[in-house]
Write a structure and sequence with these properties.
By secondary structure, the chain is α+β, with helices and mostly antiparallel strands. 24% of the residues lie in helices and 27% in strands. The strands form nine sheets. Strands 4, 8, 9, 10, 11, 12, 13, 21 and 24 form a nine-stranded mixed β-sheet that branches. Strands 1-28-27-29-30-31 form a six-stranded mixed β-sheet, sandwiched between helices. A three-stranded antiparallel β-sheet has the order 5-7-6. It binds adenosine-5'-triphosphate and magnesium ion (3 copies).
Length: 587
């Protein structure tokens, strides 16, 4: 059934919504695809839902094609599995938590490694059951610190997540490669310009991880790439939230009121470079935002180690920065420590490879991001408890804090060919990851091998941002007039515009419009028919350009000469064709 503008649940807007800064957000709202409910939470209107379903279809096609099987987990999940994996703690403020009437803890799933692992444990028991790839297209929840740009970074969003299960590393390599190839087909079909970058280069115990970034100037990810050989790697410009409110337990003597002489972030960086040179010989640098602060640890024996101080939920990110693994089981929330007795402690976590067991005496400098009176502060103290540095947001730095400590940096020599690396930005659209045995171990997923011995299953996880893709496609496919959908994503195949005044004044125009609509549908095309009466041609044209269907057909004045107009939304090219030839020309 054709969609009719006269009755479609859609209202276009001439003005950009006040809260929308990036083009995709502005256009998706203006063209009637999405409506905001709350920050990072959006309603999909009929036209938007059609696009979302089209993205899902492409993803589903390609997952099915590699033999992955679709299932669906709930979004409302019990705490236990996430506690077993350590992520109930690690996620910190980043997940939505709730309680049932019995006061039991639940969460809204941010990603489902635990649930998939348990499901396989539940049903499978032998190596003969493997390999297995299962996936879902499902709504995820993350209490993002900065929901942004409409559905680009939502707090509720749709993700395709799949997981592979293999008996050995060779199997994992194969599963990973299958997914990688499927992702290339998915992103090609979605109409992206994208790069595949190494993620977390060198960290996470050598496990392999790659991201698919849609190239976009206002993307949140910064990556380096080699124009010579195509090598590309994410430089971890991940924005880590400084917690909105961290009650400061007090580090005696550590905090002093800031003064006009208080050092700036540049001072801090200079200080780190002078007194705490990085072990890898690179310099500390200040990124455009300040988030976690990295310092170098000096152990009692004089050895130095880079250290990130962060909130528990950021552990994974800091692991990347440290270039070392922090054992989840050993992560200790600092809240449990006695601050008064240990002036060197701050809120956060620390892993054994950083500090050794319980010891804290080696910490020389500590930094603690926190909020006082609505202002974000980053405070450091040295171990004698003297004031080190106080930074005030808005005065000393603009945003929330990072010192970038990437494995690869702009200007470095390309690891493959030696040419200088250049910098660019992108939007993370997909992420593939060789998990290894992390979750299988935490949740005890083992199967019997050929010799009847229990083996821990080896896993991979693979995500695509389905709802994010809708916005990212618009980022890469729009002009001054509106959206320009790639054909496979367009909510309909043809936007047919009848420019007559009303049925009594221009009966032929509307009759021809109806007839063409029927014929196009009979030929297998979906149609949005602008059958509105007493709406000016100008308004109809503007709407058609804003909405962005790739083929626009205009039935109007030229009908007197027996012709209609076919317009290509992307190129703007128009041609007149005889009414009788129209359908054949369009199909
Ligand atoms: P980001 O770095 O953008 O926060 P992520 O690394 O946290 O993403 P993953 O856990 O790798 O995300 O999830 C897989 C995919 O889900 C991402 O590649 C991205 O496309 C999508 N995604 C993640 N967070 C969001 C979000 N808040 N809104 C929309 N899509 C998201
Ligand atoms: Mg994230
Ligand atoms: Mg990411
Ligand atoms: Mg990711």
């Amino acid at each position: 059934m054709a969609l009719r503008m006269s009755s479609l649940f859609l209202r276009t807007l001439r003005e950009n919504p006040a809260d929308a800064e990036v083009p995709s957000h502005q256009l998706l709202v203006r063209a009637g695809y999405i409506r905001r409910v709350s920050p990072g939470i959006y309603t999909w209107l009929p036209m938007g839902l059609r696009v979302l379903r089209n993205v899902e279809k492409i993803v589903r096609d390609e997952m099915d094609a590699i033999g992955a099987q679709e299932l669906l987990f709930p979004a409302l999940l019990p705490k236990a599995p996430y506690e077993a994996s350590g992520r109930w703690e690690e996620y910190g403020d980043n997940i939505f938590r709730l309680k049932d009437r019995k006061d039991d803890d639940y969460l809204l799933g941010p990603t489902h490694e635990e649930m998939f692992t348990l499901a396989v444990k539940d049903l499978f028991s032998s190596y003969k059951d493997l390999p297995l790839a299962i996936y879902q297209i499902q709504t995820k929840y993350r209490d993002e610190a900065r929901p942004r740009a409409g559905v680009l970074r939502g707090r509720e969003f749709v993700m395709k997540d799949s997981y592979s299960f293999d008996i050995d590393e060779a199997g994992l390599d194969k599963s990973y490669q299958l997914h990688r190839d499927a992702y290339i087909r998915i992103f090609d079909r979605l109409g992206f310009h994208y790069v595949i970058v190494q993620a977390m280069a060198g960290a996470m115990g050598g496990s392999k991880s790659e991201e698919f970034l849609a190239t976009a100037e206002n993307g949140e990810d910064t990556y380096v790439h080699c124009p010579h050989c195509g090598y590309a790697a994410n430089v971890e410009a991940v924005r880590v939230p400084v917690p909105e409110a961290v009650p400061f337990e007090g580090t005696p003597g550590a905090h002093a009121e800031s003064t006009p002489d208080t050092p700036t972030i540049e001072t801090l960086v200079a200080h780190l470079n002078e007194h705490f040179p990085r072990s890898d010989g690179r310099e500390w640098v200040a990124a455009d935002t300040l988030k976690n602060v990295l310092v170098t640890l000096v152990h009692p024996d004089g050895t130095r180690e880079p250290l990130a101080i962060g909130i528990p939920g950021d552990r994974e990110i800091d692991e990347k920065r440290l270039g070392a693994q922090v054992e989840p089981a050993s992560v200790e929330p600092f809240e449990e420590k006695d601050f008064a007795a240990n002036p060197t402690l701050v809120k956060g976590y620390i892993g054994p490879n950083v500090l050794g067991s319980e010891g804290t005496s080696g910490i020389r400098y500590l930094l603690d991001p926190r909020v006082v009176d609505g202002t974000r502060w980053v405070t450091g103290a040295n171990w004698e408890g003297q004031h080190f540095i106080d930074l005030v947001k808005g005065r000393d730095f603009e945003a929330d804090g990072v010192i970038e400590a990437a494995d690869v940096r702009v200007g470095d020599a390309c690891p493959s060919c030696g040419h200088a690396l250049e910098s660019a930005r992108g939007i993370e659209m997909g992420h593939i990851f060789q998990l290894g045995t992390k979750y299988a171990e935490a949740l005890d997923l083992k199967v019997l091998d050929q010799n009847g011995k229990l083996q821990t299953v080896i896993m991979g996880s693979y995500g695509v941002g389905v709802s994010r893709a809708v916005a990212a496609v618009v980022e890469g496919n729009h002009d001054d007039l509106g959206i320009v959908w790639p054909r496979e994503l367009s909510p309909v195949d043809v936007h047919l515009v009848a420019t007559g005044k009303d049925v009594t004044r221009d009966p032929e125009v509307f009759e021809t419009g109806e007839q063409l609509t029927r014929e196009l549908e009979a030929a297998g095309l979906s149609v949005l028919y602008d059958d509105r009466q007493k709406v000016s041609p100008g308004v109809k044209f503007k709407d058609s350009e804003l909405i962005g269907v790739p083929t626009i057909v205009v039935v109007g004045k030229s009908l007197e000469n027996g012709v209609i107009e076919i317009k290509d939304r992307r190129s703007g090219e128009r041609r007149e064709v005889a009414v009788g030839d129209a359908v054949a020309e369009i199909v």
